[in-house]
Write a structure and sequence with these properties.
Elements: E1 4-13, E2 16-26, E3 31-35, H1 42-50, E4 59-64, E5 67-68, H2 74-79, E6 82-85, E7 92-96, H3 97-105, H4 111-120, H5 125-128, E8 132-133, H6 139-153, E9 157-161, H7 169-184, E10 188-193, H8 196-199, E11 204-209, E12 212-217, H9 219-222, H10 224-228, H11 241-244
Helix pairs in contact: 3-4, 3-6, 4-6, 6-7
Length: 245
């Protein structure tokens, strides 16, 4: 049994199917990758698990620790230990980095928690605690600060939408190191990505195409997708055999 289980989940917008009969188990204390081309439904899957308002009118069910969370709000899911790191981290004018991380940590969010969380993501607390979470920060800095807030939150499940988007090599390496430490602490990580480099950091992977689950398995098994840009499947758009060779 997984910590997050999707049971025949389908979701459509304006009668256009986005997710199609997804049944997926995300195992606890693993780093999972959800891969596939643009438009495959990867981000929609993350938003549906998180319970964002526009993504709750789905069929099927989502289980967390074996119990349905289908009717829970975003806040209720967050209180139970599920959080989402956005592809493009939000900007908060007038809110300092220290206050931002303290709010994420809740009652345990003292100065030492903020400092240790920033240090873990490779940012100097003396340089960043007093700064605002706004446009004066680079995309990579905001991504690290968002990750620091997640570290302080101590969630059980982290959904990461394109963790390598908008960051340099040093920043993404730091992010990968933090994800490994989160796993060691017992956190389950679900990475949404179309990057072969990100896939390599996972323990297990799922391949989506047109909102349907095409394949699942080890990183080695699914790496062929990034080598060939497609894998044999039953989808109506499956390429000719000679293309796959």
């Amino acid at each position: 049994m997984g910590i997050i289980e999707l049971r025949d989940v389908s979701l459509s917008f304006d009668e256009h199917p986005i997710l199609q009969h997804l049944s997926i188990d995300f195992w606890e204390e693993h780093i999972h990758a959800v891969v596939g081309p643009n438009g495959a439904g990867k981000s929609t899957l993350a938003h549906t698990i998180m319970g964002l308002p526009d993504y709750r009118q789905h069929s099927g069910d989502i289980l967390y620790d074996g119990k349905s969370i289908k009717h829970l709000s975003v806040d209720q899911r967050a209180k139970q230990g599920i959080t989402l790191a956005w592809q493009e981290p939000a900007r908060f004018h007038g809110i300092s980095v220290e206050e931002f991380i303290q709010r994420a940590a809740g009652k345990g969010g003292g100065a030492r928690t903020v400092e240790s969380s920033l240090e873990l993501v490779g940012l100097d607390p003396d340089r960043y605690m007093a700064r605002d979470v706004d446009a004066t920060l680079s995309g990579g800095e905001r991504k690290r600060i968002e990750l620091a807030s997640i570290v302080a939150m101590e969630p059980r499940v982290v959904l990461m939408d394109e963790p390598d988007s908008g960051v340099d090599i040093d920043a993404i390496q730091s992010i990968f190191e933090v994800l490994g430490k989160l796993k060691q602490r017992g956190t389950t990580v679900i990475m949404i990505t179309h990057s072969g480099e990100v896939l390599k950091r996972a323990d297990h992977a799922f391949l989506l195409c047109s909102g349907a689950l095409v394949d699942k398995g080890t990183v080695d098994q699914l790496s062929s997708y990034f080598e060939r840009k497609c894998v044999p499947c039953t989808h109506k758009n499956v390429p000719d055999e000679e293309v796959l060779l």
